[in-house]
Design goal:
539 residues, mainly alpha, 66% helix, 0% strand, protein biosynthesis, elongation factor
């Protein structure tokens, strides 16, 4: 530093034992910080054309030093503030792994928008992480009716690491947003995994939260998703929002039918299906009280229409035939009235139990279920979904009679929906409310032998859910039953690590519960036998 005023001051550094290199380095760092501040200031001041001209000139002068670690942050900062970095420079950055890693997300966006494969490589690990996180929640060791998969609010879920990272990677870039949506559609088609539908809705609403109008205004699903998001938050579709949602569906114009593919994917999100199914069950109960048939309720018909659209998402995207699936009339005229008759059966039985004994009629709880009900669960996807949610509803009400009556119908359902992870996750949570029933042989035989164990050997996910349930409720099960279940649930060589780990945990818990051998063997009597005393002879 050839400053005349500095020369006389430098000996002070020698007195303090400070090397010149350290001094020069600190001055250099300070200057670099000032330069970074100045670059950021240039990007905000003056006319747009002028400011970008200055930054482009600066980039031209400094780019040759981009591989010098001390200067690199300045070059990267200049590129970050340029809305369009010269293509030649972008190619040089892309070709060098270290430079690519060091550049800001604003520069990477410019690279990604013309390199779908590279963007896919960046996004793919995040999508895998997202699916893994969802599956970990479904198989969580915490089983509770209060805290389950559907407990977190939509806004809380959107704060998740993956959604936030994707939101940052996309920024305001419509092209990148479209690419992510295309990845999600492709993966959904390839795997049928409905969690990709959740991510599609969460990503749009995350951009909505940040007021990114550049994307929200061009996504035709935005307002529909926003309205549905409010329903999911309340876990209920009220009349006002039902009319809004219906307006969006009815408003799909001729020639724009492709939007139905995206709307069906939004409705296929498990959080949307959960909200629609819960609202349907609530409506059916209200209709029982009003003596009204399902076909006379427009709100109920709309819920069924949206459920149908959501459940048909995969077929619609796969076939590329964008029209709403036709709803079977029998679903409305036969299946739903049948469900309502189950509600009436419960009401009648409850009232009968409360009557004084002399007024009681000989009404046993109906044990059989109509054959038509079982057939609907096997052949109609919407009927099956509603039937399963009704089953969860009666379990949550601790209605053991209705539970045992309907359980046999669940062994064979449409696409084995009764053995899906989401249903079993909710069922195991609700079963904690029936904990005391696990001591009864009849209940355990129906639940385990009649339902779970029928598929355990061929469905590993069911095996895991049963072990989760027993880890939580093993102390409630009768010892003899527990022993037979332990044998039946023993993992095979083909079983995955997760099953083996859960089984080992259960075995350890059961070993701890066994009484120790000292307690089992009879303790020897402490009393000594009295010696026989001869009776004195009388004189």
């Amino acid at each position: 530093l050839l400053l005349p005023s500095l020369q006389s001051a430098l000996p002070f550094l020698d007195l303090h034992g400070t090397p010149r290199l350290e001094f020069h380095q600190s001055v250099f760092d300070e200057l670099r910080e000032k330069l970074l501040e100045r670059v950021s200031a240039i990007a905000l001041e003056g006319k747009v054309e002028e400011r970008y001209k200055k930054l482009e000139d600066l980039l031209e002068k400094s780019f040759s030093l981009v591989k010098m670690p001390s200067i690199q942050p300045v070059v990267m900062c200049v590129m970050k503030h340029l809305p369009k970095v010269p293509e030649k420079k972008l190619k040089l950055v892309m070709a060098d792994k270290d430079l690519y890693k060091a550049c800001a997300v604003e520069v990477k966006r410019q690279i990604w928008q013309d390199n779908q494969a590279l963007f896919g490589d960046e996004v793919s690990p995040l999508l895998k992480q997202y699916i893994l996180e969802k599956e970990n929640i479904l198989f969580s060791s915490d089983i509770s009716v209060l805290h389950n998969f559907f407990t977190p609010s939509p806004k809380t879920r959107r704060q998740g690491e993956v959604v936030q990272k994707l939101t940052q990677m996309i920024g305001k870039n419509v092209k990148l947003y479209d690419m992510v949506l295309q990845f999600l559609r492709t993966l959904f088609l390839r795997t049928r995994n409905v969690h990709y539908c959740t991510l599609r809705a969460e990503l749009l609403m995350s951009l909505h939260d940040l007021d990114i109008s550049e994307i929200c205004t061009v996504d035709p699903c935005h307002k529909f998703t926003w309205c549905l998001d409010a329903c999911i938050r309340e876990k209920f579709v009220d009349n006002k929002r039902a009319r809004e949602l219906q307006g969006f569906l009815d408003g799909v114009k001729k020639g724009q039918e492709q939007v139905l593919g995206d709307l069906s994917m939004i409705l296929c999100d498990p959080f949307a299906i959960n909200t629609l199914a819960l609202s349907t069950i609530r409506h059916l109960q209200d209709l029982v009280g009003q003596d009204t048939l399902p076909r006379e309720s427009p709100d109920l018909l709309l819920l069924l229409r949206m459920l149908s659209l959501g459940q048909g998402a995969w077929d619609m995207i796969d076939s590329q035939v964008f029209k709403e699936p036709k709803m079977e009339a029998e679903l409305i005229t036969k299946f739903l009235p049948m469900l309502m008759s189950f509600v009436v059966d419960d009401h009648m039985f409850t009232v009968d139990q409360k009557l004084p004994s002399e007024e009681k009629g000989p009404i046993p709880y109906p044990s059989v279920i109509p054959e038509a009900f079982t057939k609907f669960l096997q052949e109609n996807r919407i009927a099956c979904e509603i039937g399963l949610y009704y089953f969860l509803h009666i379990t949550k009400l601790r209605n053991k009679n209705a539970f045992l009556r309907l359980l046999p119908a669940l062994v064979e359902t449409f696409s084995d929906l009764a053995f899906s992870d989401i249903f079993l996750h909710l069922l195991t949570g609700n079963l904690t409310l029936l904990g005391d029933e696990f001591a009864l042989e009849e209940f355990c035989t129906s639940l385990f032998d009649g339902f779970f164990l029928t598929v355990c050997s061929r469905k590993e996910n069911v095996h895991r859910h049963v072990l989760r349930l027993l880890l939580h409720l093993h102390h409630k099960v009768a010892p003899i039953k527990l022993e037979s279940l332990q044998k039946a649930l023993e993992p095979t060589k083909q079983s995955g690590e997760a099953v083996k780990e859960l089984y080992n945990q259960l075995t350890e818990k059961l070993e701890l519960r066994k009484p120790s051998p000292a307690e089992v063997t009879e303790t020897p009597s402490m009393e000594l036998p009295l010696p026989t005393v001869p009776t004195p002879t009388s004189r």
